[in-house]
Structures are given as C-alpha cells and as structure tokens.
C-alpha cells in the first residue's frame, strides 16, 4: 500500500520512518516533509493547509491511508473533507479536534465530565481578564500563582506561567491585548497554577476501545532546570518512572475513559490519538491540556520503542476494530529524545545555516536523528525552524539512553545550535 503522512516536523519524520518499516507498505509520502523525511520517504511539496491539493494527490496516487500529524489541519477539518470523498484517514474529525483547538471548550468539557483539572475562569477581552487579576489579587506583594492561556492554537507557546501580578497582567496583554499569538487570543483562560511533575499519557482510540501507550515526560521550558519561556518541547523520554501501573490505571479510569465518553455524548466521537498533558499533584493527576495527535517530541521516543506494526494499529482505529488487535509490543529499553534548536528560539531566529555531522550521529548504535525544522538547499541540509532536530536514542537504562542521545548531539553542529543538557534527569 501507499501511505501519505501530512506534516513536516519531527513527529511526522518519526511516523514516516516507522510506517515505512511495515512489510505491508510499498511507499510513504510526506507533505511537505523536511530534509530528514526526504531520506526515509518521498517528500511532496504540498502544505498542510492545502486541503484541495492533499486530497487531489491522495486520489491521483491511490493512497491507501492518510495519517495527519499536526494539529492545524485536524482543527481545520482535513479528516472530514478526506472522508467525504472516500479517502481512509487517521485522525479526529473537526468537531472532535476542538478538544485541542479551543482551551475554553476543553476546560468546559472537563468540568462537565467531572475530570480533575485546575480551577479556571474564561475571558473575552484583556480588560475583563485584567480586572479579574486586579480584584482577585489586591496586594501587589502577594504571589499570583496563575497560568494564562490563549484559547486557540499557538504552537505550544500560548501558555504563560505567572508568579506575580505584573507577570499576569503582562501575559494578558501579550495574549489578548497585543495579540502576540493572533486569533488564538480572542478568548483566554486564567487558571490556578498546579504544582507537581508533568507527564504525558497518550492513547489511541477508535471511540470505543482505548489503547494506552507508555507514559512519557516532556520538557516544555526552554532551559535547564525547567527555567525560561515555554516552548513546543525541548525533549522527552519514555517510559517515565513517575507513572507506575497503579497511577496509570487511575489516569485511565479518571481521565481517558471519561473524556472519550464525554466526547461521544457531545456527539463528537473521537478517533485518533488522545494526548493528556497531566500534572501529578499531591491530590492526584490533573489535566493541564488535551492534544488530539501524537506529541512532538513524545512521538519520537515512543515510536523508537514500538515493535508492533504501526500500520495495523492505525488501520484498526480507522475501521473501528481496535478491540481486535493484539496487545502492543514494546522494546523494554527506555528511549530519550533531545531537541536541538536554533539560536534565539522560542523567539526570533535565523534560517539557512548549514548543519554538519548528521551522518556521524545517525551511525551511532541505537541513535536516530529525526528532523523537524530542516531544509535542503543546494544539496546541503540547513536549519529551517526553531526546533531543528530530535536526536533520539535507546539504552538499557535511562542513563545509558541519555548518554547515547547526547553522544549523537555532540556530533552535530551548526551556527547557534543549542539544547537542554538535562533531558530525562527527572527520572533519577
């Protein structure tokens, strides 16, 4: 069969790489792809927002299955439009994707379904939100432990953690006043800041059966020690020891099952990947957010460890027969992904700088370099985004996997390249 993966980041490179390993797959296309997917698959110069172009390509090439990677085309209804013309596609409908597309919708659903989450208030203007902060936190010297979130999609950057009134007011102004994240700031949420360790639990569901994947831990803040601004993710590892079998059973019972049932009751049945971003608080796990696709960079270490044919799982989800597949098989060794970023990220950065050492890194045992923001110019691989590479490795222990990943990192260089040095240290 022929498979089309929609997207051009590290998640899509990992998906294309894993799908290509299936003996049932003849050819994998990636639209638009990057310099890495060009090595492991065939790139197609069609943007993720070009629904008509993607549909025409799938029809012309007799694509047997489309896998939609990023959130933007999911929220925009690509799955609905493809299904309408008979194309088999993995991912949630536009109505179901609102679980990620609107934080206000997500929080309201969590509240209605009695799923544990932070207390929150929603606002339609910067003035309303600022008034709430001034009235709720009268003394400027008192701590203001809140998180201000843009309602819509903001590439993982529309969440600002605050500790003072000045920080909260600045966050409100950035999101809803200056519209730093565009229309994502038409509405915003102010919620209590939860304390604890964050973890990511991903599950694949066909709307009836839920297949939970091993828990991972992402690293959102830019710098070591979880300092600096939020990013799309600076690295991840899997599995994480902070979620044991008992905790996972609790998350399934209190979070995953209720949200799938709630979406069904809301007439938005969910098919695809359900990603729960969780805070493990002293009172138990609470939902920070839901995503409706594989996380990036969580996807990379997850798929490194998956031994089951991914195509079988994706097709069973599309067909609504996930209950029929055998239990997923995983490599027992842990895996770690270290994101290498462009100088200046998550703010402005320069593109077009040549990347060297990729082949040397890939040649290291149990290392795979997944490309995210890369492009080939005149035969040379260059940086073309903020998060550029996800150097992913496996090892007998988390410490050994980390050592292998950073061995790969040391082989790679370009002007301004940087990364966090403490990915997976929370596991100790």
TrEMBL record:
Listed SMART domains: GARS_A, GARS_C
Recorded catalytic activity of this chain's protein: 5-phospho-beta-D-ribosylamine + glycine + ATP = N(1)-(5-phospho-beta-D-ribosyl)glycinamide + ADP + phosphate + H(+)
Names of the cofactor(s): Mg(2+); Mn(2+)
Xref: Gene3D superfamilies: 3.40.50.20, ATP-grasp fold, A domain, ATP-grasp fold, B domain, Phosphoribosylglycinamide synthetase, C-terminal domain
InterPro entries: ATP-grasp, ATP_grasp_subdomain_1, PreATP-grasp_dom_sf, PRibGlycinamid_synth_ATP-grasp, PRibGlycinamide_synth, PRibGlycinamide_synth_C-dom, PRibGlycinamide_synth_C_sf, PRibGlycinamide_synth_CS
Enzyme Commission number(s) from the entry: 6.3.4.13
Pfam families: GARS_A, GARS_C, GARS_N
Pathway annotation from the record: Purine metabolism; IMP biosynthesis via de novo pathway; N(1)-(5-phospho-D-ribosyl)glycinamide from 5-phospho-alpha-D-ribose 1-diphosphate: step 2/2
Annotated GO biological process: 'de novo' IMP biosynthetic process; purine nucleobase biosynthetic process
UniProt KW keywords: ATP-binding, Ligase, Manganese, Metal-binding, Nucleotide-binding, Purine biosynthesis
SUPFAM superfamilies: Glutathione synthetase ATP-binding domain-like, PreATP-grasp domain, Rudiment single hybrid motif
Top-tier EC class: ligase
Residues in ATP-grasp domain copies: 107-319
GO molecular function annotation: ATP binding; metal ion binding; phosphoribosylamine-glycine ligase activity
Cross-referenced NCBIfam families: purD (TIGR00877)
Family: Belongs to the GARS family.
Record-given protein name: Phosphoribosylamine--glycine ligase
Protein's gene: purD
